[in-house]
Structures are given as structure tokens and as C-alpha cells.
Design goal:
The structure holds two protein chains of two kinds. Chain A is built from 15 helices and 13 strands. Chain A is an alpha/beta fold. Chain A folds into two domains: 119 residues, Alpha-Beta Complex (Aspartate Aminotransferase, domain 1), CATH 3.90.1150.10; 236 residues, Aspartate Aminotransferase, domain 2 (3-Layer(aba) Sandwich). In chain A, the strands form four sheets. Chain A has a seven-stranded mixed beta sheet with strand order 2-10-9-8-7-3-4, with helices on both faces. In chain A, helix 8 links the parallel strand 7 and strand 8. In chain A, helix 7 runs parallel beside helix 8, helix 11 crosses helix 12 and helix 12 crosses helix 15. The longest helix of chain A is centred in the C-terminal third of the chain and has 32 residues. Chain A is globular, with a radius of gyration of 22 Å. By secondary structure, chain B is α/β, with parallel strands linked by helices. Chain B is globular and about 60 Å long. In chain B, the strands form four sheets. Chain B has a seven-stranded mixed beta sheet, with helices on both faces. In chain B, strands 1-12 form a two-stranded parallel sheet. In chain B, strands 5-6 form a two-stranded antiparallel ribbon. Chain B is built from 18 helices and 13 strands. Classes of the chains: A alpha/beta, B alpha/beta. The interface between A and B is large, with 107 and 114 residues. Chain A: This is Aspartate aminotransferase. Chain A: It catalyses: L-aspartate + 2-oxoglutarate = oxaloacetate + L-glutamate.
Chain lengths: 410, 467
């Protein structure tokens, strides 16, 4: 085989397009314009537009690095025990009967994605109904994760563009027609990309229907603490399901709420009927993980475990977390006011009604392309913007761009 | 599993009546009894995961778990050894299971350069933003250069696709996913024996595999003719999994001449070499020497897959840092391959962990730290060579049977294939509290000079008195 480009065994391998979400940052980085805005990936930015490492995280990291007794030995396949224990408490509540009854198995995984993938593969291997229902729309990576995990992906109605709210009727109808036992993906809070969450009353009805139909809930919890600013409030949806004694899966991510994006810290919990089942399930989760990456990375999980375990650090964390959530809410209000001030046509109240890091603007892909071209606004083509990427100084530019898009592009 | 039929009415007993739910569904939900037949697959005792077969309906019951039919999986044969070791209270116990380096005092070892790098990173106060899907650019550049040499034409021509992976395992898995998608039906040939997790990786990635002869128990050496014959016999365009150096579990590596012959037959059959490089620098103490096999293949202009790990050579086990490299015949092919590797990584974990990658990039990128690393690596490799010598000397001194134990000296790397069979290995554990894997593999990294005589006694006893 010649080395100089004549013939390759990879000739049939075509160039993949950039990932639609992460590719936004790639495109943003290439843009040479002095005024540009990255509202693509959901990574928190300060008012100064800088990434943020939480004080409490720096503190924890300092302690870890300076601890001379620490080693870098392989973690167990299921990850750091203390991290798993604390993560379960965080999402289910420290007084959760499911935890007390040892009915929960929690395994450390690579952030939200890794937890979803391991959970999906586990279900594909062991669960009897290999169909998962995902909301429309949902995070772009969800269908890929579950398809590659070996599940077949179907959808349920969720977002109603007419009201820019929840299509509750459609959601219930679609869940009702799902085959018994089907898996249902639920965003625990701060639905991505729409920011539209069911009310607690609606969650209760969803829960009843899911239990009635014997569907298996699989929660994606990537924003606990970010939606309302309260860790407990943001876990309510999960907790009402666990309280009824039924089974469910939960994928947790610490990327946003602890700002640990690049450390890839997360956990998969499976709440089972009893401790015996939980033990067997855990043993099979290990068989999924071992051929994927053997055991998870230690650094991020150690930071989280330390913070969750230490009363003072935990409290500091909740304050910093609320600070981030509050800044995002403030950006929502500023953007809303700015559009009102410009007299931008349309009802923009969804900006302040939606919850979490993202706003589903309702802009179409032509309008988005226009905003990128003319105003150097980088966002996903579905019209989603990350509020976390905005600041008081950049809100006017974004408002100008939206105004122009709405008035000049159909 | 017996089939059970349950009335749905009892399932909803705990739910409060929900008129609004009915209203919303406009009577489409049927409450009342719904019966299902459940037919769960037989539990198998093997560690293979059971796939359910056929059309199966779900039992909807209050107290039956959805996962009731799931069997308890056996412990991992390698990682499970350490678990068993921890549980043993005998003071003579010795952990020669997993390949993690230990000092003479049998303590885990964090390299000094790693501590220095971490302190530097802390001082700089770097952020924790997502890495790109392909990982840290500085790491990817450093790792490819380490593997092939910075002035290698492959590097200069941009013909290598490098994607940061989750240590060796994760990198092998990404490569397997690439093979499954782009070379459907192509087989991977793995050595007999090989690292226990290789077949799990290919199974889960749904890549078919078969074995080529490798270890010859008669010579406790390489069955070279068998290897060449089996590689030759494989269907054209197969992937041949090769251990770059320090073969795991045997410690037996081909000679440079044998590597040439292996490359010949791979080229003849248009196979694709697939290297697992987990011990570069650790085997001989020299990074360059341990990469000789890979560089030989690259020098022939071959397209190659190479999985790398920094678990052992930088002691970064728990940080999960490695890379998958694909050497292609053109820069364009490399770019395309890299884009597809990214497409496989994204639905697995989105992007890799930053910490370990930064450590490697810092160590390799700083000439002083890089020099210090090489020195520490020589020390680690040196300690293992010393331990091999002492074990050999102890065996020869204590064993009066005339058995030739010199294979201990000829084998290279962390592991030694003792030639003990399953029952003999079990005797090592049960009688002597020596923990090892059942294939007869011992990790010399877990052996101290002080324990060599004890181990020699155990091996001699197991070899001669147990069959």
C-alpha cells in the first residue's frame, strides 16, 4: 500500500458534518468579527462573558491536589462510592425511602451523556421493551445516544409552537398509545431546548398515566438547581415518581450545576423494586461499562463528593448555584424588555416564562442563519439560545439581531 | 420465569382517582383489568448478557420488578481479583492481579512529574469548559508525536487522525465502533491469549472476532509459525490486533525480525494492523524502543489503528487518558476518519475528560518535565526487571526439579505468564493468598524483592503439587 494518498482502506469514509450543537462553537471560534456572540452550547458565562469555575470547586480541587495521601488507582467499575452515595441523596432526597431500602443502584458515569448511554445499553441488553419515547423537540444528542445504545426511538408530542408552551393533551395521548413497558424519556426540569416544563399538577397526571400503562420512566436531570435555583424544587418530578414505589432510571449531570463541564461527571441511578434486584442490576451495569471505558475518571467525581459531603461547601455551592440561576433569569428579563422597547413584532413573553438555561425563541432556521450572517450570533438552527451566554452589555446586540430577523426574514 | 397475570385495577389502587386525567384523555384510557403474559428469558450463568428474544409482553404488576429476570453477573475476572484481595485478612496476602504499578513497599505510585503538572495546572487556574469532541488539541499532538516520533513523515504529512479516548479501553471501543460501521462484517483477529477485556469490547461493539495462535505452552514462548499461519488464513482485509510491546498477559513479544515477517503477511493479505499500546516506555524503559513495532509498520506506509493508554507509563490509571490514532495514506483520509470518530464519541460521552489530558500535555510539552518523566519511567521499568531477576533466582534456587524458569527473564513488561493452569492458580490464592488471574498471569508490578522468595515457594508448590 503506497503512503502517498493513492489508495486507502478509508476511501469510503465520508466527512461527517460538525455536530450541530458543539459545531456552533467551532463556527464561532472561526469568526474573526470583533462583535460576536456564542449562544450555542449551554455553558454558563459570567456577566463579563467568561467561563466560570465555582469558588467551591477551586477550593475542593486545591484540597485534593495538596493531599499527599491521594493516589490515582483505578476506581471501581461503578466509580467513586462516596460520589455515588451523595449523588443519589442529591436527586432523591436524603430521606428517600428508596435509598434507605437499598433499592437504588447508582453508578458514576461520564456526565449526562455517559449516564444516558450506559442506561440505554443496559435496557437494550436486559429490558423487554426496547423502544424509548422522546419528546419533540429534545436535546439533539438524545436520539443518537439511544439509537447507538441499541434502542428504537419513537417520539411523543411535547412542544406546542402555537402557544410556545406544553402540548399536554398531545403528550398524554402519545404516552397512552405507547406499548406497555415502553421507556419514556422525561426531562426532570428545564426542558432542553424549549425551557417548557410541566407544572407539578401536570407531572402528577403524567406519573399516573405512566404507572397505569406500565411505562418505564427514564429521567434526564442536567439542570438540578439551575431551573428554579432550588435543588429540591428541581428534583420534584423525579421524587414524585420514586415516592409511588415504582421503578425508574435517572441520569444526572454535574456539568452545569457544578460547572464541571470538561471533567465529565455524572451518575446513572436505577430505582428498583427491591434490594435484590438492585444488586443484580448493578452487576449487569458493570458489564456494560467495562467494555466501554473500564472505569470512570476520578478527578471530577472527587470534587463533587467533597462538596456534597461537607456542610459548609455544600451551602456555599447552593449560594453560587443560585447566583448563576438568578443571573440567567435576569438576562431573560433584560432581553424581554429590550424587545418590548424595540417594538419587535410578536409575543415574546415566552422568554420570561421558559425555565432554565435556554430560550426556544421560535425563530426559524432562515432567521437564525440571517442572525449568524449579519449579526454574528451563533446559536442552534432550531432557534434555541443559551441565556447563560448573554450579558447586560450583549443583550442589546441580540435584541437588534432578533428584531432585524423578525422584520426582514420570513 | 413463571408467567403471571395481574389485574391492572390493583396496580392503580395507590393512585388517587384522577378525573382531570380522564378529561384530558377524553375517555381514551381504559381503566379496569388488563392482563398480560410475561415470558422472561432464561437466566444464563455465563457473563454474557442475555438478549430477550421474540415478541414479549410486559407484566404490569405492583410488586414485580421490570428487572426481575436479570441474573447476577459474575465479578470481572481481572478487577474482581483486587476486590477479593481486599476482602482477605491474611497478613501474607499478595496482590498480583491487576496491572497497577507498586513501589518496593507495595504502595501505589503517583509520579513526581504528575504532581508537578497538577500543581502547575492549579496555579494557572484553568477553566473547566468542554473539550472538543476529539479532546485536548495539545494532548492529541503530543500523543501522536510520542507514538511515532515528532519528525515522522506521517506527522509532517498530517496523515494521522488522533482522538483523545478514555484510556486504552475507550480508545479500543471507539476504534471498534469505527470498524463496525465502516467495515461491516470485517473480523478482528486477537491473540490467544489476550487481555480479557478485548473480546468484551468487540462483542459489545458487535465486531466479530477470532483468535490467532500466539502463546506456546510447550516453550512458554511465541508460537510464531502458528501466528503467521493464522494471520495468513484470515479473510482478506481483517483487522489484526497486535500488542505494541509487553504483551498482556504473556509478556512475550515478537523479535524485530519476527515483526518484519508479521508486517509482510499483513501486507500480503491486505489486513489492517490494529495496535494496542498500553506500555510504551514501561516495557524496556525507553519510549522509542517500545514504539519500534508501530514505527516499523508506519515506515512501510501501512494504514494502522493504534490505541494508546497513559494508565501505566504515567500512572494516570484513574484519570482515563489515552487516544485512538488512525494512520492513513492521505491527510484527506485522516480528516474524514477523524470526523467519523467524533461522530461515534458524541453519543457515547460527548467529549472526553480534561484533567488527565492536561497532565499529559504539560508533562510532554515541558522539556524538563519530559526528561524527569523518562527517568521515572526507567526507574519503574528497572524495578520490574530487578524483581524478575530475583524471582528467577529464587525459583532456580528452590526448585530442585530442573525446570527451566528462564522464561521469567525473557518475558517483558508488567506481567508474567507463569504457565500455571486454572487449578494451580486457584491454589496460589486459596493456599498461599497470592491473588492473580486464573490464566496464570501475575503482575510483577505488584511484587516486591522482599516477597520474591515467598512467591517462589507458592509457585513451586502449585506447579508441582496441583494438577
Amino acid at each position: 500500500m503506497e503512503s502517498q494518498g493513492s489508495c486507502s482502506v478509508f476511501d469510503h469514509v465520508v466527512r461527517a458534518p460538525e455536530d450541530p450543537i458543539l459545531g456552533v462553537t467551532v463556527a464561532y471560534n472561526k469568526d474573526q468579527s470583533p462583535i460576536k456572540l456564542n449562544l450555542g452550547v449551554g455553558a454558563y458565562r459570567t456577566e463579563e462573558g467568561k467561563p466560570l469555575v465555582l469558588n467551591v470547586v477551586r477550593q475542593a480541587e486545591q484540597t485534593l491536589v495538596n493531599d499527599k495521601s491521594r493516589v490515582k488507582e483505578y476506581l471501581p467499575i461503578v466509580g467513586l462510592a462516596e460520589f455515588n452515595k451523595q449523588s443519589a441523596k442529591l436527586i432523591f432526597g436524603s430521606d428517600s425511602p428508596a435509598i434507605q431500602e437499598n433499592r437504588v443502584t447508582t453508578v458514576q458515569c461520564l456526565s449526562g451523556t455517559g449516564s444516558l448511554r450506559v442506561g440505554g445499553e443496559f435496557l437494550a441488553w436486559h429490558y423487554l421493551e426496547r423502544t424509548i419515547y422522546i419528546p419533540v423537540p429534545t436535546w439533539g444528542n438524545h436520539p443518537k445516544v439511544f439509537t447507538l445504545a441499541g434502542l428504537s426511538v419513537k417520539t411523543y408530542r411535547y412542544y406546542d409552537p402555537a402557544t410556545r408552551g406544553l402540548d399536554f393533551q398531545g403528550m398524554l395521548e402519545d404516552l397512552n398509545s405507547a406499548p406497555a413497558g415502553a421507556i419514556v424519556l422525561l426531562h426532570a426540569c428545564a426542558h432542553n431546548p424549549t425551557g417548557v416544563d410541566p407544572t407539578l399538577e401536570q407531572w402528577e397526571q403524567i406519573r399516573q398515566l405512566i404507572r397505569l400503562k406500565g411505562l418505564l420512566p427514564f429521567f434526564d436531570s442536567a439542570y438540578q438547581g439551575f431551573a428554579s435555583g432550588s435543588l429540591d424544587s428541581d428534583a420534584q418530578s423525579v421524587r414524585i415518581f420514586v415516592a409511588d414505589g415504582g421503578e425508574c432510571l435517572v441520569a444526572q449531570s454535574y456539568a452545569k450545576n457544578m460547572g464541571l463541564y470538561g471533567e465529565r461527571v455524572g451518575a446513572l441511578s436505577i430505582v428498583c423494586k427491591n434490594a435484590d434486584v438492585a444488586g443484580r442490576v448493578e452487576s449487569q451495569l458493570k458489564l456494560v461499562i467495562r467494555p466501554m471505558y473500564s472505569n470512570p475518571p476520578i478527578h471530577g467525581a472527587s470534587i463533587v463528593a467533597m462538596i456534597l459531603r461537607d456542610r459548609d461547601m455544600y451551602n456555599e455551592w447552593t449560594i453560587e448555584l443560585k447566583g448563576m440561576a438568578d443571573r440567567i433569569i435576569s438576562m431573560r428579563h433584560q432581553l424581554f424588555e429590550a424587545l418590548l422597547a424595540r417594538g419587535t413584532p410578536g409575543d415574546w413573553s415566552h422568554i420570561i416564562k421558559q425555565i432554565g438555561m435556554f430560550t426556544f425563541t421560535g425563530l426559524n432556521s432562515e432567521q437564525v442563519a440571517f442572525m449568524t450572517r449579519e449579526y454574528h450570533i451563533y446559536m442552534t438552527s432550531d432557534g434555541r439560545i443559551s441565556m447563560a451566554g448573554l450579558s447586560s452589555t450583549t443583550v442589546p446586540h441580540l435584541a437588534d439581531a432578533i428584531h432585524a430577523a423578525v422584520t426582514r426574514v420570513a | 420465569m413463571a408467567s403471571s397475570m395481574l389485574s391492572l385495577a390493583s396496580a392503580s389502587a395507590s393512585a388517587s382517582p384522577s378525573l382531570s386525567l380522564h378529561d384530558n384523555l377524553k375517555g381514551r384510557v381504559k381503566l379496569g383489568s388488563v392482563n398480560f403474559i410475561s415470558c422472561l428469558p432464561d437466566k444464563t450463568s455465563s457473563s454474557a448478557k442475555a438478549k430477550p428474544s421474540g415478541r414479549i409482553s410486559m407484566t404490569v404488576g405492583v410488586n414485580v420488578s421490570r428487572f426481575e429476570g436479570i441474573a447476577m453477573a459474575p465479578p470481572d475476572p481481572i478487577l474482581g481479583v483486587s476486590e477479593a484481595f481486599r476482602a482477605d485478612t491474611n497478613e501474607k496476602k499478595l496482590n498480583l492481579g491487576v496491572g497497577a504499578y507498586r513501589t518496593e513497599e507495595l504502595q501505589p505510585y503517583v509520579l513526581k512529574v504528575v504532581k508537578k503538572a497538577e500543581n502547575l495546572m492549579l496555579e494557572r487556574g484553568e477553566n473547566k469548559e468542554y473539550l472538543p469532541i476529539e479532546g485536548l488539541a495539545a494532548f492529541n499532538k503530543a500523543t501522536a508525536e510520542l507514538l511515532l516520533g515528532a519528525d515522522n513523515p506521517v506527522m509532517k504529512e498530517g496523515r494521522i487522525a488522533t482522538v483523545q479516548g478514555l484510556s486504552g479501553t475507550g480508545s479500543l471501543r471507539l476504534a471498534s465502533a469505527l470498524i463496525e460501521r465502516y467495515f461491516p462484517g470485517a473480523k478482528v483477529l486477537i491473540s490467544s491469549p489476550t487481555w480479557g477485556n478485548h473480546k468484551n469490547i468487540f462483542n459489545d461493539a458487535r465486531v466479530p472476532w477470532s483468535e490467532y495462535r500466539y502463546y506456546d505452552p510447550k516453550t512458554v514462548g511465541l508460537d510464531f509459525e502458528g501466528m503467521v499461519a493464522d494471520v495468513k488464513a484470515a479473510p482478506e482485509g481483517s483487522f489484526i490486533l497486535l500488542h505494541g510491546c509487553a504483551h498482556n498477559p504473556t509478556g512475550i513479544d515478537p523479535t524485530p525480525e519476527q515483526w518484519e515477517k508479521i508486517a509482510d503477511v499483513i501486507q500480503e493479505k491486505n489486513h489492517i494492523p490494529f495496535f494496542d499500546v498500553a506500555y510504551q516506555g514501561f516495557a524496556s524503559g525507553s519510549l522509542d524502543q517500545d514504539a519500534a513495532s508501530v514505527r516499523l509498520f508506519a515506515a512501510r506506509g501501512m494504514e494502522i489503528l493504534v490505541a494508546q493508554s497513559y494508565s501505566k507509563n504515567l500512572g494516570l490509571y484513574a484519570e482515563r487518558i489515552g487516544a485512538i490514532n488512525v494512520v492513513c495514506s492521505s491527510a484527506d483520509a485522516a480528516a474524514r476518519v477523524k470526523s467519523q470518530l467524533k461522530r461515534l464519541a458524541r453519543p457515547m460521552y460527548s467529549n472526553p475528560p480534561v484533567h488527565g489530558a492536561r497532565i499529559v500535555a504539560n508533562v510532554v510539552g515541558d522539556p524538563a518535565l519530559f526528561g524527569e518523566w523518562k527517568a521515572e519511567m526507567e526507574l519503574m521499568a528497572g524495578r520490574i526487571k530487578n524483581v524478575r531477576q530475583k524471582l528467577y533466582d529464587s525459583l532456580m534456587a528452590k526448585d530442585k526439579s530442573g525446570k527451566d524458569w528462564s522464561f521469567i527473564l525473557k518475558q517483558i513488561g508488567m506481567f508474567s505468564f507463569t504457565g500455571l493452569n486454572k487449578a494451580q492458580s486457584e491454589n496460589m490464592t486459596n493456599k498461599w493468598h497470592v491473588y492473580m488471574t486464573k490464566d496464570g498471569r501475575i503482575s510483577l508490578a505488584g511484587l516486591s524483592l522482599a516477597k520474591c522468595e515467598y512467591l517462589a515457594d507458592a509457585i513451586i508448590d502449585s506447579y508441582h503439587n496441583v494438577s
